[in-house]
Amino acid sequence: MIRFIRQWIIDTLGFSKSEANGTLVLILVTFLAAVLPKIYLIESRSDKESFTADQESLRQWGEELESFLELKEFKSPEITSPIVEPKSFPFDPNTASLQDLISLGFSEKASTNLINYREHGGSFKVKSDLSKIYGISEERVQALWSKIQLPEVIAPKESKIVPVEKVTESKKRFDINRATAADLQTVRGIGPVLSERIVTFRDKLGGFHSNDQLREVYGLDPEVINKLSHLAIFTGEVRKININTDSLKHLYTHPYIDYNLARAIVSFRKQQGHLDSVSQIKPIKILSDSLYQKIYPYLSPNP
Fold first, then answer.
1. What are the φ and ψ backbone dihedral angles of 233, each rounded to 5 degrees?
2. Class for domain 241-300, per CATH?
3. Same CATH fold, 241-300 and 85-155?
4. Checking DSSP bridges between strand 299-300 and strand 232-233, what pairing results, if any?
């Protein structure tokens, strides 16, 4: 087709072949210049109509959504839970139930910690013992101080006749933290090996504060522990570890404190500065509540 037109131009107008080609290009450009604007206008009009239709659909959808939200707000008024004020009534932390503790204003976590402490053999002897539980603040203990059915201090124990084994001149009672291996061997069932094992463990601990710790001595059966508990005197006086000044090495030599915990305590006191009470180390992540209860009697913030 193009070849025919080009030949017609050459024959009719007398153009050369190159002039005929240029004429064809000029005709094509002129045609496109005339047609393309009209095509563009038609397409633009179509796009504008489509955009207007989309905009109208979007507006209608927005109105429907707004009506739905207003209806939902009307049907679902805000429900506020009533604030439960803590109660105040006499209680014994050795026997109080979980619900009683929560009613007294202790958090569910702190109340659970207290119950777990009791179930693992722990007990409360004086009012201030309650603040040893992780999650129970000293402020809340002070607020309930008059309601705690425990003494403020432990009264000195009177001498009692031991029914299990008659105390004779050859078997007098002795301070467990001052007793020698020979003293311990006066208890039936404890020979040279066990007596040395008890003394070694006691010295590493810094002293026994409770007869429950005798169960941690390897080789002592319950019957022997029972006899020893009746002959031994547990004063609760133990060698303290200073959490502010004692070295890392000194901390982890204690049987209850491993290297990781000792390092955590040293790092914690560097971050916090001087610690005024033992309870300030409770936030240490690797220090569980049960472990805190074990090491608490051996720690002190003072020299």
1. -105, 125
2. mainly alpha
3. yes
4. unpaired
Question: Where along the chain do its domains lie?
Answer: 2-75, 85-155, 174-233, 241-300
- Class of CATH domain 174-233: mainly alpha
Note if the pTM is more than 0.85. no
The 8-class DSSP code of residue 175 comes to E
What homologous superfamily does CATH list for 85-155? Photosystem II 12 kDa extrinsic protein (1.10.150.320)
Instruction: Count CB-CB contacts under 10 A for residue 5.
Output: 13
- For 75-129, write each residue's pLDDT tens digit: 445 444 455 577 888 999 899 999 998 998 899 998 999 899 888 888 888 888 8
Euclidean distance between CA atoms 299 and 28, whole angstroms: 100
d(CA 92, CA 72): 50
Q: Which pair of tokens denotes residue 174? A: 């002795």
| Separation CA 269–CA 263 (nearest Å) | 10
- Write the burial class of residue 197 (CB in 10 Å: 0-12 exposed, 13-18 middle, 19+ buried): middle
Amino acid at 99: Q
